[in-house]
Amino acid sequence: MLHIPSTSGLRAFEAACRYLSFNQAAEELGVTPGAVSRQIQTLEQYLGKTLFHRHHKRIELTAVGRQYLAEITLPLEKIAAASARLRSETRRNAVSICAYPTFALRWLIPRWADLYEHHPDIDVQLITSLNPADFERDDFDLSIQVLPEGTTQTGMRIDKLLEVDTYPVCSPDMARRFKQPEDLKKAVFLHESPRPTDWPRWLAEAGIHDIDSSQGLHFESANMALHAAENGLGVAIGIDGLVREAINGGQLVKLFDVVRRSRAPFQIVSAARKSTRPKLVAVREWMLEAAGQPV
């Protein structure tokens, strides 16, 4: 007999980890913040461990919570992928997309209404994963991946979607402290596990070689680091296409004029055998147009 905690508790935990906020997790799940808190408390009671430190206006993962998240992420992704695959078999109009969580939250979902307006007949199914899509195992139609410019893969079509232009970002209140890159000596650096070299590479681009960027706070995802920056915890490295809306909305401020362009942009990957299917072509071309790329 399998002993598995409540799926509602696991969903609440996973969402709270991404946002580091019960309120935002509740908004995504369509429940109240109190419900999210209770579901996570029930999960903690089941496990006999504390998963979050609860502060006055924020939460942070405990060491146990970080380990638990790392261990359950892949199984949850497999369940989601398997479910999406079975659902797609029964929906002729479905196009499945696998994307990084931060890319989905900060680029794709804000444009979702426009996609639906242009293609209301296409059922787009979105799965998020920190790992590149396995097309043989998961049978996705499209995958968003960070790949070096000019990458080719046998049997795959690859289209450049979005440049990865990086620069420091922080809250408007904190931005007043920094007039030039050298002022980052007094900054709290916010790091994301999937891109551990962004800070040292940007500092090198800015000609700064006497700052230890390894110190600071470390997060499981870029979205967590950006939420921490929005809440005044420190300075994060933002990818222009993913933080522009937050900057325009006043949640974040771009620091300085130094921008580092990565040699590995976001790319749309699809199996060549599927790449000419009309609905897949429509979604791919919509994404390219939304990113300002030639179709």
Q: Care to describe what's here?
A:
There is one protein chain. The protein folds into 3 domains: 7-72, Orthogonal Bundle (Arc Repressor Mutant, subunit A), CATH 1.10.10.10; 95-157 and 266-290, Periplasmic binding protein-like II (D-Maltodextrin-Binding Protein, domain 2); 165-261, Periplasmic binding protein-like II (D-Maltodextrin-Binding Protein, domain 2, 3-Layer(aba) Sandwich). It has helices at residues 7-19, 22-29, 33-47, 63-89, 101-108, 112-118, 135-138, 172-175, 198-205, 222-230, 240-248, 278-290; strands spanning 52-54, 59-61, 94-99, 123-128, 142-146, 156-162, 165-170, 189-192, 217-219, 235-239, 253-254, 260-261, 266-271. Helix 2 packs across helix 3 (33-47). By secondary structure, it is α/β, with parallel strands linked by helices. Helices cover 42% and strands 20% of the residues. The chain contains 12 helices and 13 strands. The strands form 3 sheets. Strands 7, 8, 9, 10, 11 and 12 form a 6-stranded mixed β-sheet that branches. Strand 1 (52-54) and strand 2 (59-61) form a beta hairpin. The model has no long low-confidence stretch (mean pLDDT 90).
